[in-house]
Design a protein that fits this description.
Layout lengths: L9 H6 L7 H21 L11 H14 L7 E4 L2 E4 L11 H5 L20
Antiparallel strand pairs: 1-2
Helix pairs in contact: 2-3
């Protein structure tokens, strides 16, 4: 069984950052892209085919966040007078609910409305 096709590419990541990714960062980004694609397929089971146009941007945002997190899993690090804190407990790769909402099918309009009954005994 082959792995599903990733929903973004390393080129998508590079296009959305002004920092030139090193070969090591490119390799790490490729792994994160595969992981994010798998997370999306689990968390958004009704993902359309083809996926929404927002998909590469959502994945790249998560990948860039993960690349900026300390690789050793530390929540924070300090070098001289510079320090940084991971935005998410444990850092690493994650997708926010708002990001996942960008991938879900839109709610049908108008929103379904109807009467309901409550039965009592």
């Amino acid at each position: 069984m082959s792995a599903p096709i990733p929903l973004a590419t390393v080129a998508d990541v590079q296009a959305r950052t002004e920092v030139q990714l090193t070969p090591e960062q490119q390799a790490r980004a490729a792994v994160f892209i595969g992981d994010a694609s798998a997370i999306i397929r689990v968390r958004v089971p009704d993902l359309s085919d083809p996926p929404p146009a927002t998909t590469p941007g959502v994945i790249v945002t998560a990948v860039l966040r993960a690349l900026a997190s300390p690789a050793d899993g530390n929540k924070s690090e300090t070098t001289g007078s510079h320090s940084r804190v991971a935005a998410h407990e444990g850092g690493g790769l994650y997708l926010t609910n708002d990001e996942l909402d960008l991938l879900r099918p839109p709610m049908p309009l108008p929103l379904p409305r109807g009467a309901f009954s409550i039965w009592t005994i």
